[in-house]
Each structure stands twice: as C-alpha cells, then as structure tokens.
Amino acid sequence: MLSQEKNDLLTRVGPGTPMGGLLRRYWMPIAGVSEFDKRATKPVRLMGEDLVLYKDLSGNFGLIDRHCPHRRADLSYGMVEPQGLRCNYHGWAFDASGQCIAQPFEDTAFPERNVKCNVKTKAYPVGVRGGMLWAYMGPLPAPCLPDWEPFSRSNAFCQIVLSELPCNWFQCQENSIDPVHFEWMHDNWGKRLREGDGATYAAKHLKLDFDEFEFGFVYKRIREGIDETHPFWTIGRVALWPNCFFLGDHFEYRVPIDDENTLSVLWKLTHVPADREPYVQASIPTWQGPVFDEKGGWITSHVMNQDFLAWAGQGRIADRTQEHLGASDRGIVMVRRRFFEELDKVAAGEEPKGLIRDPARNVRVALPMANNDTTLRGMTTEQIMKEPRRRSHLTSFILQAGQPAEVRQQMAQAMGVDVQAQDVIVPWAANANSASGAGSA
User: 376: domain CATH number?
Assistant: First the structure.
C-alpha cells in the first residue's frame, strides 16, 4: 500500500503539481486529424486545463486557452481565420502562439495604440503523428514527437477510438503492467458473461517476469500450454512510458483530463491480407467509443470496455492506502518506484525518462512486439481465416464497442471480407510455436 501523500503524488496532475509537471514534458494525443474534416474547433480539457483545439483556414492546428482574455468568452465557438482563431463575441483574434493579432474596434478607432501587441493568451504546440493530434504542455524546447514504427506501416487499415472515463489516469496505466488480469477479466469473466456459470477456467499463469528498458517496461509471462520459447516470454508486452500500453497492433494511451477523468485514446492498425496489397489508406477515421449502454450500465462485450469497468470500479481516484499487493504486482511496484524517481529528477532540474531529443534518431523507432501475428502482416486471406483468433482480428473489431457502420464498411473494403458489427472475444488458446495465442490486453 501507499501513503496518502504518495498516492496524491501519482494521481494529481493539475498545473503546479509534481506529476503534472512530469507528464507535461511528454507529447499527449488529444484528438484525431479526421475529426476536423467536419469541424473547425474542439473544446478539450487536458490535465485540468480548459483549452480549445482548432484548425485554421490555412490548415494549421492550434491549441489555446478556451476562454478569451478579453472578457472570457468561450473560444470553442470562435471563428477560424486564415491565421488563427477569432472570438465570436468581440472579434479579437489569436494565432497559434497565443498572440493577439486583431482587436477590430481598437484597431479601427485607435490604430496608433496597437494594444493587441500586449495581449497574449495561453497556447501550446500541436503535432501530427499517426493521424492523431498531439499536445505538448511542458517547458521549451519540446522533445521530438515520438515516431513509433507502427505509425508509418504500409498496407494497413488504421482507426482511432476516443473514450472518456470517470477515473484517474494512473489506475488505467497500472493495467499496462498487469498480465494476470487478462486471465481473469478477459478470459474467465468474459467466458462467464458469454457462457454462464458453467464456463470452464482458462489457462493459468505459471511464471512472470518484468524488465525495464529506455522507453518503458516489459512484462513477460508463461501460461499453461506454452513454454519459454513463446514470444510472450522471449519478447513480452510493453508498458510504454509514461502513459501507454503497446501490444504490437495497437497503442492504448491514458491521457489525464483532470484528476478524476481520463481520455482513452486507442490507435489500432490491421494489416490488409497480402493478397489485398498494395493498399493506401486515404484518411484514418476517428470515432467515439461508448462506455455505457442505453440503460446506463457499463458495456462489457469488448476487451477495452471490460478494462474500463475495472479501472473506474476502483473509484474516481484509487485509494492505494487500502490495497494489499500480491506476487503478481511486482511490475506495479517497479513502475511506481520509477515514477517517484522521475518526479525527484524533474524537481532537481534533470531530464526525465524516455524523451527523444535527436531528430535523426526519431525515425520509425522500433518497440518490442510479441503480438506480431495479430497485425496480420504478410498473411494471406486464406491463412488468416484458418485460425480463429487471427480471423477475429480481420472480420471484427474486438477491442471496443460502438464501431460506426461507415468505419466498419471502410475496414471491410480494405480487408476484402465482411466485417461484423460485433463479435465475441476469442478465448486465449496456447500455441507454443507461435504468438497466435496472443490476446488483446
């Protein structure tokens, strides 16, 4: 367990907090580029700050304070211009740096005063990568926006799913270093939901290991039916520092909205079958993933929806003063210790873990990847359709509920097969000779 003081250190992310200061030194995904095909502005709340993300008429993105510094009008209702965003209340305009560039009445009646040069609002850099828009809120100069290798894969259909969760970011991220939860939540409990109380139990975890590397942590596991030659042991899965889970075919980012709410950002790729190559995706769709059903209950049909329920079930902010950790939680302890160490480093003026400063190095940066087969790279339609788990990744979207019909249709056209609106989670099955037993969480 942790003291209340240490729990607060891990969970409080607002301006001026130690964890807020650490996380602001990393780029955070906050939206999809494709969202701005049909809108010009989007209000966002990020680490306790209310902001507005916009795309101006020149195609450039900006992120500034949501409230106009004139008389605090809501700039999410503003008008985009060739350069920047204009307030709809009195017409003051601001560029991406936050500088006021127009005050219509003042510029007309008293041009000699040039008052606007003394007015500036809060603004943060925006980057584009993998069809996502990223914000950097820390001290300048900003580090490189990581170019993880999957973001530039060819012959892949990608999609972005956004969901807002009523809980703190850290309990979401702890899931990234918790292998045993998959056996119980997604396999055993998932089977109970589908099959009832007579469902048999899934393969047990027999052995765990945890390692740290430059960009995060790796967990390794052996379950009944596999041995130490399996990629789950030889490679493992990545808890990507500081707030992401990488599983080969997708990234799961847990972005703090504030202390009690989190934006889940899922970036998922699925390689088209080899017989469908070459394939070039014109635009990566972004959609909102629901977390509650029409009756207000938690959706439990899909992998990440099950995770959402577990995270939020710990409370808005998990009370770690009341927990009792077990042997499977060794990775949790390692990650917490690293965060405390990094908080101390930042307080001492040092560079925190995992930043990339050299642009030459920031080119298709590779990460450990045990789930290579679930990306379906290099496999023909015939090969994929013969194996149940691979087939599920081709013909359905098992990660989150609510995939819109138009996105499902785009995916079907790319894959050359029918994509189902909903599918059951294929139970984990051991295969000592490949990673085809790879689950999704």
Answer: 3.90.380
